[in-house]
Amino acid sequence: MATVAALKDHGGTLETGLAARLAVRRKALSGATSGLAPGYVQANLAILPRTLAQDFLQFCQRNPKPCPLIGVSAAGDWRIPALGEDLDIRTDLPRYRVWRHGEIVDEPSDIVKYWRDDLVGFAIGCSFSFEQALLDDGIELRHMTCDCTVPMYRTSVETHPAGPFRGPLVVSMRPMKPADAIRAVQITTRFPSVHGAPVHLGKPELIGIKDINKPDWGDAVPVHDDELPVFWACGVTPQSVIMAVKPDFCITHYPGSMLVTDRRNTEFAIM
Amino acid sequence: MATVAALKDHGGTLETGLAARLAVRRKALSGATSGLAPGYVQANLAILPRTLAQDFLQFCQRNPKPCPLIGVSAAGDWRIPALGEDLDIRTDLPRYRVWRHGEIVDEPSDIVKYWRDDLVGFAIGCSFSFEQALLDDGIELRHMTCDCTVPMYRTSVETHPAGPFRGPLVVSMRPMKPADAIRAVQITTRFPSVHGAPVHLGKPELIGIKDINKPDWGDAVPVHDDELPVFWACGVTPQSVIMAVKPDFCITHYPGSMLVTDRRNTEFAIM
């Protein structure tokens, strides 16, 4: 079993979503999917029993910025054809988290043995797509410069509840010079299905962030005097909302181990 | 001679650019053109001798954000057919300023007697168009709430020079809540020919503005604690650049007395 970097060093061809998924499925690689299949959309994954699925679907529809749903499986079906012809959500992520009553009970490399006829898979867009568009435009992403995880914060902004699902919006933060922040609004507006435009910028206190240097998830990054913190709705929102419900049973991707799809980032651009 | 408001009170039909121009031409109204022919593009006007026109044209092309050129007349020609079939830049603005060597020598209601065979007219997009789009989206414009002129500031940002034309970028400022500022970037991005997206937001000191309460033109407006100042490139930039050159002779519109065109604001939206 190899990491992405190691496999690439050895000439592995992981240049498409399908190739990446097949490599993961045959357990030829583990770890984070960042950098796999450049240009292809990666997604957050949440798998819930059917009893909760309808409410969660409604939660996503009411909160499209933190929960941009790009694919849903039929109950009991491990395929999401809209995201890839040969795609199996039980085997195609490098690592999963299995939860019972809000506690992690396993972190397996596939979930075949956990699969049930009543499970529904939700694929939710992730920031990798818009980050690539920002990098392509020459905008620095501080957490990449610092080689760390993007800082994320619980805010005082409430999501729109649906059934038992409710809780605060979680945001990620990228510091930028004002002109870059304006450009970033323009660029990420093109990608509504991967969080879209920022939800806030400047003045973190207005959304309940007391100390920008103390993120609730990820790592703190420096915000220079000539920069504004720019905040995007974050895919950790649905995860944190699910965990608050403490479902009898659910499965999510392991942090950083995403579902790699056959859809290209550019397909998700609205113009 | 009546003001726009008075004429409207008496049932005047000033609902198209042409109707507004004809009313101005027959001196049926004076004063500011704001509110005339709703939905139609209004423009800043600068008229220069041919000896300066080529350099000024290049200056506009190098600085499209402060100087979005939407029409240019042929030398000696008072028409700009691209902006309106029956359009005469000598008579169709309520008031003009005539300058010699950088000094105002007259503020007439038409410039027929000043017209020369070597004069070239430049119509430059103005913020009225994008302000209408912001208002239509429900965004408050503070200077309208305060019933005053938008505050404008000389910045430390230099324009790209062309021939004798050079000088600082002038910006207008509208305070907004962060979410409105993000929305305003999206909306005004659609209108590149009327100044387009903001050039800066937050942190006025980064563009050389020492005191936001002391604009160089227009009136100060309050910026609340939960707001960011949002800055757009301003059509006063070309005027201030022209004045610095102190041409032997030139003509501009009188502040607020714009050229009303037959083009609709929506025609200028790029998407």
Structural write-up:
Two copies of one chain form a homodimer. With 271 residues, chain A is of the alpha+beta class. Chain A has two domains: 42-126 and 239-262, 3-Layer(aba) Sandwich (PSTPO5379-like), CATH 3.40.1640; 128-237, PSTPO5379-like domain (PSTPO5379-like fold, 2-Layer Sandwich), CATH 3.30.2040. Chain A has helices at residues 4-9, 17-25, 50-62, 128-136, 142-145, 178-189, 236-245; strands at residues 40-49, 69-72, 96-100, 103-106, 119-125, 152-158, 168-176, 200-201, 228-233, 250-253, 259-264. In chain A, strands 1, 2, 3, 4, 5, 10 and 11 form a seven-stranded antiparallel β-sheet that branches. In chain A, strands 6-7-9-8 form a four-stranded antiparallel β-sheet. In chain A, β3 and β4 (103-106) form a beta hairpin. The longest helix of chain A has 13 residues, at 50-62. Chain A is globular, with a radius of gyration of 18 Å. The model of chain A has no long low-confidence stretch (mean pLDDT 93). Chain A binds chain B through residues 178-179, 181-182, 185-186, 189, 197-203, 206, 226, 228, 271, and chain B through 178-179, 181-182, 185-186, 189, 197-203, 206, 226, 228, 271.
